[in-house]
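agent> Task received from the user: take the single chain below, predict its 3D structure, and emit structure tokens. No templates, no multimer pairing.
agent> Plan: (1) validate residues, (2) run structure prediction, (3) serialize to tokens, (4) report one or two observations.
agent> Step 1 OK, no nonstandard residues flagged.
tool_call: predict_structure(input=
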Amino acid sequence: METLNKAEQKVLVRQAIATFIDFLNEASKIHTEKHYPMLSAETYWVEGGQKYIKIASGRTNGQTMVHCFVDALTGDVYKAAGWKAPALNGSRYNLMDEASFENLKTKWDPYGGYLYKGRQ
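)
tool_result: status=success, residues=120
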């Protein structure tokens, strides 16, 4: 198996994050239409970061929150400890591991409960 350098690995992780963002936005839309049809769905986007990429979320009311962090090199998903840093007590999922990503999709909820330890 070919070993990737850090730059190539980061590109692959960014592609996985784009797929993750697409999933989050679609799942949020479906959940909101089903349970809260009068509200707009929460949207998710990349807010930046070097070592840990911040995934932010918000609604049209302008309030922005941190949803989670993703390790830019490995694709590990971490619960947010706050606006600036992940909770470093263990990753919850890995976007580069297909089985882990599928597990994330089955556990996802719009409130971030799937990111708590023990819910994987």
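agent> Step 4: summary for the user.
The longest helix spans residues 6-35.
agent> Done.
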